[in-house]
Amino acid sequence: MDEGIELSLTIAQIIQRLRGSHLHSQIERQAKECLHQPDVKLESLKEDVRSFLKTSGWERKLQNAVYRELHIQLPPRHPPAPPEHLKEPLVYMRKAQASWEKRVLKSLNSMSTELLVPLAHMRPAAEQKELTNKWNEMGTDEPDLSRFRPVYAPKDFLEVLIGLRNPNHDSSEDISVRSHWGLIQVPLNVRDIPHLREAYSELNLTSGQMGIDDHALIHPVVMEEDSAAAQQYSRQGCPTGLRADLWALILNATNQPQDVMHYEQLKAGVIQHNLLVDNLIYKDVKLTASNDDYYFVFEDFLYQVLLCFSRDTAVLEHFKYNSATPPKSYIQGKVGDEECAVVYPPNGVIPFHGFSMYVAPLCFLYNEPSKLYNVFREMYIRYFFRLHSISSHPSGILSLCLQFERLLQTHLPQLFYHLRQIGVQPLRLAFKWMVRAFSGYLSTDQLLLLWDRILGYDSLEVVAVLAAAVFAFRAENLMEVTSLASAEAVLADLSTLKVMPLIQVFLFATAM
Questions:
Q1: How far apart are CA 457 and CA 235, in angstroms?
Q2: Per the confidence metrics, is the pTM higher than 0.70?
Q3: Which has the higher per-residue pLDDT, 224 or 274?
Q4: pLDDT at 54
Q5: Region for residue 348 given its phi and psi (left: phi exceeds 0; alpha: psi -120 to 50; beta: otherwise)
């Protein structure tokens, strides 16, 4: 596509999206108010208004909003391209994702039928009052969740990815026999070490990596409130005391009065209606974060954020660029009638086993529920959804799996072969780390250093690199194992690992 046309399309798309936003109305109001100022002259009106918006900080806010749009919007394509092609260009990927969605929704509906629990119902007044009173102490509640089970676990999703094949690709034509060693058998382009070194040049062995409080004063990046500068800065790690502000700035996750009001409206929705997925959220928090030494103290926060998240229809917007489609259910007695189909849950995301671990680490950074909520929602619609959707995107879980296997096969072929010989597929051991972006496996300080780089490079690729680096670090011990159980034992505890030295050594000290 001609570069000029592509740029025009991108600009038009961003203008259209921002035009209906709260920021647009705020800037419009500010521009009107500044007309009453004495230094604004009719003959230089345009320049004077622009100058006012710049000096009063509104220009920077607009720049940050545009920067956010550039990160989440669809790549501009030729207008006649169908929407589904923009979401995911490969037909077989779209079919696999649709098939997986049906399976997950069927599992949810079966649970509803078997347990005689409706997908949604209004809470009785007494229950609403009780929930309002204990909103900040939901962790003390002990509902009977024994009948509920997670809709799916990561290992179920892995089996689907393993079975994926491109019907138009003849694997016998592959130049390297290595392609048959791994579990992922789809032909996607993933970067090798030389290309990774180029992309992650700021992580080279001579560059210092931060993550400590070595800035007593507020950093200029935070003062300037520049999303692009904050993102570049976080590539080498964020000082602990500045991380919360820097992440919110990168994500353009504000906590304005309208954001707080939106959160309060979602909270009201939780109090008024009970959803079947609420039980899945409770169960997941109890099975994961509540049993974690780092995160059990945040149990109340996790319920608040996840229950509100399930009701947030603003999350549906990410399905414009996600290969997935929001699941739909039917109003009672109207099954099959498309006019009576509603998105369920309202945000279109059915939680799975481990979902709450996407939120848990953020609780260390934000103690205000509405701010915590806004940052999590942005993290989800930019990154985390890719970890449980089938797509060909470079940050998609399929690409991460393939990247991990290729890195191991290329740079640790003896280890890969040894594990295969004893019936151990490395991906089966690493998948649980990657699908959670290592949350719950690394110590929190190290996990936050990893997530600094996800935000800094606007990519989940570093997750696959770290998974391969862990195998490289434990290679000597893994070469000694003779069974799956002993391999799992070697990789059972990652809490003592130092993330950045591992990644740096793997990328920059590995022989070409």
A1: 6
A2: yes
A3: 274
A4: 73
A5: left
